[in-house]
Amino acid sequence: MIQTVRGTFDILPDELPRWRLVEETARAVFRCYGYREIRTPIFERTELFARSVGEETDIVAKEMYTFMDRSGESLSLRPESTASVVRAYIQHKMWTWGSVVKLFYIGPHFRYERPQKGRFRQFHQIGAEAIGQTDDPAIDAELIEMVEEYLERLGVRERVLFLNSVGCAQCRPAYVRRLKDALADAIPRMCENCRRRYEVNPLRILDCKVEDDQPLIERAPALVDHLCSACAAHFEALRRHLEARGIAYRIAPRLVRGLDYYTRTAFEITGARLGAQNAIAGGGRYDGLSELLGGPPAKGIGFALGVERLLLALPEEAAVADEAPDLYIAYLGAAARQHAFRLARRLRREGLIVLYDFEERRLRRLLAQADRVRARYAVLIGDEELAAGRYTLRDMRTGAQEALSEDALVQKLAASRSPAASASR
Ligand code: HAM
User: Fold this and answer.
1) DSSP SS3 for 148
2) Tell me: the pLDDT tens digits for 29-38?
3) N or C: less crowded end of the chain, CB within 10 Å?
4) Could you tell me which CATH class the domain 16-171+227-318 is placed in?
5) pTM of the model
């Protein structure tokens, strides 16, 4: 029996209403902030991710699905979308669109990680990027407000916003030297990962989760205490903006994120009930990424959230039922069957959800079936109804029945749909 690949899963029809809810809410909220949807390819040249996310990151070094295509080109399934969106910004000369271009995306991403609760190999992100000519911290604050508004609208109340600044190309090298000095004595006693990171990506040591390493890392200097004056002022201004918007946050001096393109603002939002993988959303600023990819100078900030994790954090009552059918057609006999098909087509054109079965059943079984599929109404068509030119319409909630002509029936059913239900169709 062939099953789904480890770390991947089917999203079944019963689960889809929750997926649609989070996707549609994202579209509704992001729209109000001026973000427009973009869809980039699911695979890109490997080099795009290597250059932006960073060769030495876990994502690029260990987790990408990389393959050669038939012409010998190295391609990778996207592990994230910031690189792709910045590529698109450059490729389509989006700087001509306006001073800040706001884009969002929804879709599958791929990382070869060890699957566990909230961690998959194919997972889904909802993300947004604001790219342009200014690094005004008000843009950062507005983006963070948007994520908060989104989570609030979905009822995800138990969450914490962690904030840090990771500095820039001016101040980070000096901090990294300090960090290495401070850890020089301890590093031989630290985990293998930290020892490797000490050489290739020392900042990532701050993200180590190994318990024995924690007391040693606690002693390391904090990045926020060693920012250059421009970065310090940016961070300070961002904090004031968040406070003015009434957004609560906690400073997380060790928050460094797992991607190399970040400058200044870095943030994560964690949720309850998630276990070890408790980061629902993460993001930050990536000024200079455009230049790194061969584009014009540009500043950027963005975030992405994991849909699977968001669904774990979603309150139970957010489970919305899939739409029930408006009508179940119960027919008896070959002539009635043809009639049923024609009537169904007419009603479906009106936007109604109409079901019937393909195999013949007895009347009792037909009504039981209408009940099982939770149909609002059932209509009975048999020889008698055909002869009379009137159908028996049964209200499945009350059991009340009435005989109606086809036109009257179509009219009644079309009117029975609530305006909200028809708008969502
Ligand atoms: P990231 O922190 O690598 O950032 O991923 C963002 C979110 O995607 C995580 O917080 C998590 O919820 C979800 N996620 C990541 N990996 C997995 C996985 N294996 N299984 C399930 N969920 C996962 C980025 O990807 C950046 N591109 C975010 C960003 C946008 N920064 C600036 N703009």
Assistant:
1) helix
2) 999 999 999 9
3) N
4) alpha beta
5) 0.92
